[in-house]
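We were asked to recover a plausible sequence for a given structure. The inputs and outputs are reproduced exactly as logged, with field labels preserved.

PROBLEM: sequence recovery
POSITIONS: 528
GIVEN STRUCTURE:
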């Protein structure tokens, strides 16, 4: 997030898109609800389903799946056409405005309505509301990123925020809501194929030299590795021979699961390190039991870039050990010694090698966390990014055209499918499905369908259906809901017994390599 969670309550307008906030981020949704209910903020929700947070919205726009760039360009068309944009901000702090203006020129309200299904007058209302705010905050999640155009979608949100001067101010920002509790920290620590810690590029000779000297090694790779969505196809082709998976369950979470399962089974060696015996761990050659969050010391970096202490409260059960201890011991047996007395020594090394974490220590975050970048021990941290200038100097506008999703409906597969989460289950259910109370609340997979589509297919609430895509099929129970839009069904992806990802499309965003989980074509039929 460019801003803090607390900043949400200081916004005049909040734009939520691609985020079922009340179910995926219930704590953050409370900030939104307070801002609207008690502090006079206006809320725009853009989502193809009438999700719960839409009940608090001044304006809810329902776009067709995979049309985010089109409606964002449409809003910017209106804002530029009516000269509602922050002219001084654009002139002093950005480049590329003319390219943006040329690109969005054709995205008139009528043109956008033809693509997105959003009525033109509602688009104009949303554009005026966002542009008219002194401070407007954008919140988004995987409904924006999990498309073949996910990178374009995020850039378009940044375009909109810069156009109205909403970056670098309190109550503003472009704020991705992270899907898991330390995914921000994993990325910060180099859990990406092209960077070391703090997003220092592996192609940068100076960064490589620094790491080589710190770790006492030579000739670190000078090219990025594979992204996770590139690994399984390589395994399927026999090019990738071994895979070490830590805290991930791709046999439920990956797209096109039939292909993913065949790929994993084609490996010579599969190692899984996790707290429970997941679906993926059950087919592994080696399973390394690890400690959960309450059984270890360390830090989590949350969605607002706040680095926070976690402290061991319990001893791990059985042979489970802390992740860093397992990795260090394995490294030692492979010939490279990684010797640390405790987690605090690792944090000290992180600070030495990571400019954005250089001022962070266990002592400084003993009671309250710090927002990175925090470059020195005296630095107070950086709650809001881009206050005076962008990291690259001036913000860059990109002229981006809308591109249709990778798969469309036809006579054989006449419905669209989108996937997501429910409040009472989490990710692949590794932990939540071991809680009786949560399972009572959300016991099984379902297919959410509109009343009109249910009637057209002769279906009633609770009927069992077989739903199929070009990649596979599952059986699940029908849930007739006013949340759903005609022509589109929704399935939560948590349930291994009826895994939605047996249906989803593995087509990737060309830059981020994120699969298009949010759009694919399906058919359904009642089970006799």
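RECOVERED SEQUENCE:
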């Amino acid at each position: 997030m460019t801003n803090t969670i607390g900043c949400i309550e200081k916004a005049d307008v909040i734009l939520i898109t691609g985020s079922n906030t009340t179910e995926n981020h219930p704590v953050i949704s409370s900030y939104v609800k307070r801002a609207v209910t008690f502090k006079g903020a206006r809320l725009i929700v853009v989502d193809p389903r009438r999700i719960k947070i839409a009940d608090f919205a001044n304006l809810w726009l329902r776009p067709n799946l995979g049309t985010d760039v089109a409606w964002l360009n449409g809003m910017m068309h209106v804002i530029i056409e009516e000269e509602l944009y922050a002219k001084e901000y654009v002139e002093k702090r950005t480049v590329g405005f003319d390219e943006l203006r040329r690109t969005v020129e054709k995205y008139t309200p009528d043109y956008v309505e033809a693509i997105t299904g959003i009525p033109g007058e509602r688009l104009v209302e949303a554009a005026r509301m966002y542009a008219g705010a002194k401070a407007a905050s954008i919140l988004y999640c995987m409904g924006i990123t999990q498309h073949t155009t996910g990178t374009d979608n995020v850039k378009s949100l940044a375009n909109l925020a810069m156009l109205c001067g909403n970056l670098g101010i309190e109550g503003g920002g472009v704020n991705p809501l992270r899907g898991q509790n330390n995914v921000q920290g994993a990325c910060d620590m180099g859990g990406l194929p092209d960077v070391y810690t703090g997003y220092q590029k592996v192609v940068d000779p100076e960064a490589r030299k620094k790491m080589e000297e710190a770790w006492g090694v030579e000739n670190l790779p000078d090219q990025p590795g594979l992204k996770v969505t590139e690994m399984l196809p390589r395994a399927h082709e026999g090019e990738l021979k071994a895979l070490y998976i830590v805290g991930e369950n791709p046999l439920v979470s990956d797209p096109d699961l039939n292909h993913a399962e065949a790929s994993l089974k084609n490996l010579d060696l599969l190692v899984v390190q996790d707290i429970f015996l997941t679906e993926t761990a059950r087919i592994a050659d080696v399973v390394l039991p690890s400690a959960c969050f309450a059984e270890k010391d360390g830090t989590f970096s949350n969605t607002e870039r706040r680095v926070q202490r976690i402290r061991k409260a319990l001893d791990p059960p059985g042979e489970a050990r802390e992740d860093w201890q397992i990795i260090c011991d394995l490294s030692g047996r492979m010939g490279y010694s990684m010797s640390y007395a405790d987690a605090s020594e690792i944090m000290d090394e992180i600070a030495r090698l990571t400019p954005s974490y250089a001022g962070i220590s266990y002592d400084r975050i003993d009671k309250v966390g710090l927002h990175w970048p925090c470059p020195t021990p005296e630095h107070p941290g950086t709650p809001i990014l881009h206050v005076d200038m962008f990291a690259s100097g001036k913000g860059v506008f990109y002229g981006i055209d809308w591109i249709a999703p990778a798969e469309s409906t036809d006579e054989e597969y006449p419905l669209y499918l989108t996937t997501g989460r429910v409040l009472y289950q989490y990710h692949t259910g590794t932990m939540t499905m071991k809680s009786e109370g949560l399972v009572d609340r959300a016991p099984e997979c379902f297919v959410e369908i509109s009343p009109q589509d249910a009637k057209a297919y002769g279906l009633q609430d609770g009927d069992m259906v077989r739903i199929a895509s070009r990649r596979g099929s599952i059986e699940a129970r029908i849930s007739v809901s006013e949340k759903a839009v005609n022509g589109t069904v929704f399935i939560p992806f948590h349930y291994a017994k009826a895994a939605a990802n047996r249906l989803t499309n593995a087509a990737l965003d060309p830059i981020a390599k994120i699969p298009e989980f949010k759009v694919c074509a399906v058919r359904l039929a009642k089970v006799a």
